[in-house]
Each structure stands twice: as structure tokens, then as C-alpha cells.
Write a structure and sequence with these properties.
2 domains; 555 residues
């Protein structure tokens, strides 16, 4: 009889009654984790006090690494080690004061059987709410049950009441009465017809989504499985960032200078310095100009209708940041790029629709937005933003709650007050981008926008849409918000119609939100309804969130 060495599996011990485990997912980059660690410690201290006041005790499931000088889970492998020591039925809190890579903890959360609570601070400087929204979207896609909490003050009675409810029952429900299923929304004939026709065209003629490497920054929620994407008529062209790097090296200095001169003539304010390590240099921008040309040529090579760049993961040590490239691509008015033989102007008179951080949900949304707005003769420029933070206007110019939509580096200048003349390019923070590179930033102009988000839930594509206004705030208030977040990045002051802060947080399944302008409130309403109709015709489950500008609902 053969003898086999039977492996032994260790089972983690359960915590004591009224003890709750805590984990903290972090960045992949050591520099970011070290800078953000004090903010995480402050959050955990306040959360522990709140948990204690509810009659429970918070137990950290992993210790601070004295060598690395932080206590984040900073890799998938380390996350596996941490979760191997957590009993699968233990009540578990994932607390975040920072941006985090969800794949560091997703494997453990997928297998966890006990109640899960994600908790975020409410700060522009330390974007825990952005990190938690990414994690929530990833958990939703993975089919994991969870609850979520957020707030400025964890000692607040309302926060502690909700926390106590989760500690006692393992579940919290938030009100989402602002959400209306598409079938309950009045569907105007013309917009419904246009949406259906655009869906039929996409499914019949099909489109190509160029993806420069999937899975940026741990955003599991940003990857659409092929079996869900392909029925919409969109197919992925999986491209390598190494190809983008190589193609950039093949662009001549003369071609790059022509792009740079175009920017200068348009009035872009390049905030140059001399120190490569910490300041923006012309050499960095010239490399970005080469990358811009390379991206357009590669998109043309593969016949892409939309492309997404990884946002430097894998390239950050080789090249400057891709921001100047990304915002420029999404603008109709942009530097012309010719084919390698000089015979054709590529994508002439149109943007090369780009989705930041290879967020494929945003990519599909952007492609739909472009086609809807083009058909309706509305502005076609679109971008995603981080749902970064929100606050009341300290200047008193509006009594509305104003969101800070702030994407990490670039937006199309057509969105800015002053257009290209209102755009500036500042060096990306060195702790993220050692090779430098300039952003493409400005203040978004006042006007009417449509916001939306495609996400995956229950193995199905879904889309939420709503309406909002971009408001003008005094320079002092804009500067306050910029300084509280990241002043190198483009900012949008948004007031969502009929959707409160907590309703947005309760429902939104991503750290990203897609936006596009329309030329009037009425046309923005029509554009939103046409895109919703297109999504429904493509087989998505659609919901309209909030109200019209006048406060009336959509029924």
C-alpha cells in the first residue's frame, strides 16, 4: 500500500466574542504607502474608539512593518498570508484612508464567510472614499456581500449608530430611493429610437477597444469580461505597453517638436523647472509628445474606436506620465498626427476616444457617449473623473453640496474654462512618477453635464445615469479645494440633481464617474435618455438616478 504525504491545512483561530478584525489595503508603491501611513493610523485610532464605544474591540490582523515604515497590505502575496491567519467567519472591517489596490485583499474577501464592512474617511487629501468605492465596485462584481460606511467624524452619533447596527447584525442598508429602473422612466420616442439605432449599428458593424494591458492599479471592477462585452458589439484588442514604449522611441524629435509648438501656440501654460527629479522639464514633455503620436498611430494600426492606457504602471520608470497624452486624445481640437508615411492625417476632425487607467467600463461608456453626442450634435468630448471628495461651498456662493470631480492627471481642454488657453501642465507628484511628465489640467467650465457609470453585477452589465451642473466657484474656493486634493490635476465643481452625498456613496459602484457636457439643460436631458436607451438596447440593466434640474422626477 502506497504511503502519501498528506498536506496539513491550518485553520485560523476565531476571535473572542465582541472582537472584530481589521485589515488595510494599500498602494503597490512604497513611496505612497510611507507618505499615507500617518493618515491611516489616525483613521484606525478614531475607528477603534468608535467600535469600543459600541461595546466591541477592534483587532488589527497584520502589524506595521518597521522596515517599510507602514502597515498596509502592499501586495497580493502578503494579502494571502494575512488572510490565512483570519478565521473565515470573523467579522471583518476593511478600513481605508488612502487609495488602495483592491487585488491585495480581494482574494481573501471573496472567500470570507463572515460579515464584511468597508469604511472610508471623508477627506480630499487622503482619498479613502476613492479607494473604498473601487473596492466596493470590485466586491460587487465578484458577488461578495458587504456593507459600507463613510464619514468625516467617526465619533458622530449617526455614524456610531450605523456602525453599531453592523456590529450587532452584520449588515447595513442605505437608502437608494433616488434610483429609478429604466422601465419606470418616461422614454421619449425620438431619444428611444436614436438609442436603439445606435445600439443596432454598434452590434452590427462592431467596434474595437484597444487595451494597453489590463488591470491597472488593482481595479478588478474596471475589467469587463469578454462574454459580457462582446454582445454589445465591442471587442478587445489586447495591446502591450511595451509596444507603446517602442513606438514612442520611433517618433522623431522634429515630429515631437511640432506637437509641442502646437500646444504653445494654443496657450498651454507649461510650469517648467530645471530639476528632473521634482520639476517638470521640457525634455519630459517632448517625450510625452512622442507618446501622443505613438498612441494615435497604434490606435490606427489596429483600427481602434477607443483606447485605454495603463496610466504608467509598468512604464513609470521608463517614461514620463501619460496624462498630457490622454487629455489631448479626448479633444476634437488637438495636434494633427500623420501616418508614418506622411500620407494620411489620422482620426482627422475627431478625438481618439480614450479611457483613463484602462477602465474598460469607462471605455465602453465613452464610446457610447461619443456616438450619442455626435448624432445629437452635442459636444463629444468626454472623460472620467475620480469621485474624489465633496464639501459645502465655504465662500457662500451656493448653498448646494458641491462634489470635487478630479481625475488623476488629465481631462480634455474643451471642458475647461478658456479651453486650451485655460489649460496648464504641472509635474506629476514624484512619489508616483519618478520619470516626471506633465498633467493637462484646468477648471471645468460652468454648464450642464450627464454623468454615468457602467459596472458589472450578478454577471451582468449595468448602467447608472444622472444629471448634474458644473458650477462656477470663486477662485479662493477653487484653490481651497485644489489644495485639499491634488492641485496638479483637473478639477470639476459638480452639483448632482436629486442625489445627495450619501445616496451617491451608497449606490455608486466605482471610484470613477463618466461626464460629458451638453449645450442646454433640455439637450442634456435628451442626451442622457438617448444613452440610457442605447444601453438598454445593448442588453444592459439601466437605472436613472436623481431628478431633472427642476427637481421633477423622470416618470
Amino acid at each position: 500500500m502506497a504511503l502519501y504525504e498528506i498536506p496539513k491545512t491550518t485553520t485560523a483561530k476565531k476571535l473572542k466574542q465582541n472582537e472584530v478584525a481589521l485589515v488595510a489595503s494599500g498602494d503597490l508603491r512604497l513611496s505612497a504607502n510611507k507618505v499615507c501611513w500617518p493618515a491611516q493610523q489616525e483613521l484606525e485610532s478614531e475607528l477603534a474608539a468608535a467600535v469600543k464605544s459600541c461595546g466591541y474591540s477592534l483587532k488589527r490582523a497584520h502589524s506595521e512593518n518597521k522596515t517599510k515604515k507602514h502597515g498596509f497590505i502592499d501586495s497580493q502575496k502578503y494579502g494571502l498570508d494575512v488572510f490565512s491567519k483570519i478565521h473565515p467567519e470573523t467579522p471583518l472591517i476593511v478600513a481605508e484612508a488612502v487609495w488602495q489596490y483592491s487585488h491585495h485583499v480581494l482574494h481573501g474577501l471573496v472567500a470570507h464567510r463572515g460579515p464584511i464592512l468597508t469604511v472610508a474617511n471623508w477627506s480630499g487629501t487622503w482619498p479613502g472614499l476613492v479607494g473604498v468605492l473601487n473596492l466596493n465596485g470590485s466586491l460587487t462584481k465578484a458577488g461578495v456581500k458587504y456593507s459600507s460606511l463613510w464619514g468625516e467624524d467617526f465619533s458622530d452619533s449617526t455614524f456610531k449608530k450605523k456602525l453599531s447596527r453592523w456590529l450587532d447584525s452584520g449588515k447595513i442598508n442605505h437608502a437608494t430611493s433616488h434610483v429609478k429602473p429604466w422601465k419606470k422612466v418616461a422614454q421619449p420616442k425620438n431619444e428611444k429610437k436614436l438609442g436603439a439605432a445606435l445600439a443596432e449599428q454598434l452590434q452590427q458593424d462592431r467596434a474595437i477597444m484597444g487595451v494597453f494591458d489590463e488591470g491597472c492599479m488593482g481595479m478588478f471592477n474596471a475589467i469587463i469580461p469578454d462574454h459580457l462585452l462582446n454582445p454589445t458589439g465591442v471587442f478587445k484588442e489586447r495591446m502591450s505597453q511595451s509596444a507603446l514604449y517602442f513606438e514612442s522611441t520611433q517618433v522623431s524629435d522634429r515630429e515631437a517638436k511640432a506637437v509641442f509648438d502646437w500646444f504653445v501656440k494654443k496657450g498651454v501654460d507649461f510650469q517648467f523647472g530645471k530639476k528632473h527629479a521634482t520639476e517638470l522639464t521640457k525634455a519630459q514633455v517632448m517625450d510625452q509628445c512622442k507618446m501622443y503620436i505613438a498612441a494615435v498611430r497604434l490606435a490606427d494600426d489596429f483600427g481602434c474606436d477607443t483606447i485605454g492606457i495603463q496610466y504608467q504602471q509598468g512604464l513609470k520608470d521608463l517614461m514620463p506620465a501619460s496624462d498630457l497624452v490622454e487629455g489631448t486624445l479626448n479633444n476634437v481640437d488637438r495636434p494633427p498626427v500623420k501616418s508614418r508615411d506622411g500620407r494620411r492625417v489620422l482620426y482627422k476632425g475627431q478625438p481618439v476616444v480614450h479611457f483613463n487607467e484602462v477602465d474598460e467600463c469607462a471605455g465602453l461608456d465613452a464610446l457610447m457617449t461619443y456616438r450619442v453626442h455626435k448624432a445629437m450634435k452635442q459636444p463629444v468630448e468626454t472623460t472620467l473623473h475620480d469621485l474624489r471628495w465633496g464639501d459645502w461651498d465655504q465662500s457662500g456662493s451656493t448653498d448646494q453640496y458641491v462634489w470635487v470631480f478630479l481625475i488623476s492627471g488629465s481631462a480634455p481642454p474643451a471642458h475647461f474654462t478658456g479651453g486650451w488657453k485655460g489649460a496648464f501642465s504641472a509635474r506629476q507628484p514624484a512619489m508616483y512618477f519618478p520619470s516626471g511628465g506633465g498633467t493637462l489640467a484646468g477648471v471645468s467650465k460652468p454648464g450642464e453635464i450627464v454623468w454615468s457609470r457602467i459596472y458589472v453585477e450578478n454577471n451582468k452589465l449595468k448602467m447608472d445615469l444622472g444629471r448634474a451642473e458644473v458650477v462656477k466657484l470663486p477662485k479662493s474656493e477653487t484653490d481651497r479645494r485644489w489644495q485639499a486634493t491634488t492641485p496638479q490635476w483637473p478639477i470639476m465643481h459638480a452639483v448632482t440633481y436629486g442625489v445627495s452625498r450619501d445616496q451617491m456613496m451608497a449606490r455608486h459602484k466605482s471610484n470613477h464617474i463618466q461626464v460629458a457636457y451638453a449645450d442646454s439643460p433640455a439637450n442634456a436631458d435628451k442626451a442622457m435618455l438617448a444613452k440610457a436607451a442605447m444601453a438598454a438596447a445593448l442588453g444592459m440593466e439601466v437605472a436613472i438616478c436623481g431628478t431633472k434640474k427642476n427637481g421633477k422626477d423622470w416618470t
